[in-house]
Amino acid sequence: MRILTDEQKTKAIEYIKFKLLEDKWPFFSDAQIEMLLENNLNAQDLAVYEGLTAKSRVDSIELPGGLKKPSNREYWLTMANEMKRKIAAAIEAGAYEDILDEMKSAGMLGEFKTSGSGGGFYSMARVDHI
Q1: How far is CA 130 from CA 37, 82, 94, 96, 124, in A?
Q2: Are 57 and 27 contacting, i.e. CB atoms less than 8 angstroms apart?
Q3: For the segment 21-40, what is each residue's pLDDT rounded down to a tens digit?
Q4: Helix (H, G, I), strand (E, B) or coil at 25
Q5: Strand partners of residue 114
Q6: Residue 81 Cα to chain centre, angstroms
Q7: Residue 54: is it exposed, middle or buried by C-beta count within 10 angstroms (0-12/13-18/19+)?
Q8: d(Cα 83, Cα 53) in Å, to the nearest integer?
Q9: In the predicted model, what is the mean pLDDT of residues 85-101?
Q10: Exposure b/e, 32-45, CB count within 10 A at least 16 = b
Q11: What is the pLDDT of residue 67?
């Protein structure tokens, strides 16, 4: 797990809130966001990814008085997939080297496949060698 100073933790929590659009669509309490960060080895992008997938599971809600909140599942899944690609690229670039073993132990790496493991980003070359 990454060790964060109080200032780094505060900045990470603010980043997570920003990426989860908590100011527009609140879903998590401050304690839950802090738990997201801690449960994801203090890696803020991993916490954002988990938060986005959690938000995608909430479907439309009918409120008292007949008001309805439409489903925005596809929006959250699209955001989660973008974050997944970012994390996969960061893993490949070595940005998670400090917690890679813990990610493997926790079974987190399978979700973020890189080119070395059958998914993710590839470079392409012409077959005709021109």
Answers
A1: 48, 33, 32, 36, 13
A2: no
A3: 999 989 999 999 999 999 99
A4: coil
A5: none
A6: 8
A7: middle
A8: 10
A9: 93
A10: ebbebbeebbbbbb
A11: 77
Cα 39 to Cα 33, 35, 103, distances in angstroms: 10, 6, 11
Instruction: Report the amino acid identity of residue 102.
Output: E
Torsion angle defined by CA atoms of residues 61, 64, 67 and 68, in that order, rounded to the nearest 10 degrees: 10
What percentage of the chain carries pLDDT values higher than 70? 83
Tokens of 76: 């959250």
Euclidean distance between CA atoms 21 and 38, whole angstroms: 19
Residue 123: is its pLDDT beyond 50? no
pTM of model > 0.90:
no
Taking residues 84-91, report their average pLDDT: 94
Give whole-number Cα distances, 88 to 61, 78, 82, 113, 116, in Å: 33, 15, 10, 6, 11
- What spatial distance separates the first Cα and last Cα of the chain, rounded to whole Å? 47
Cα separation, 89 vs 68, whole angstroms: 38
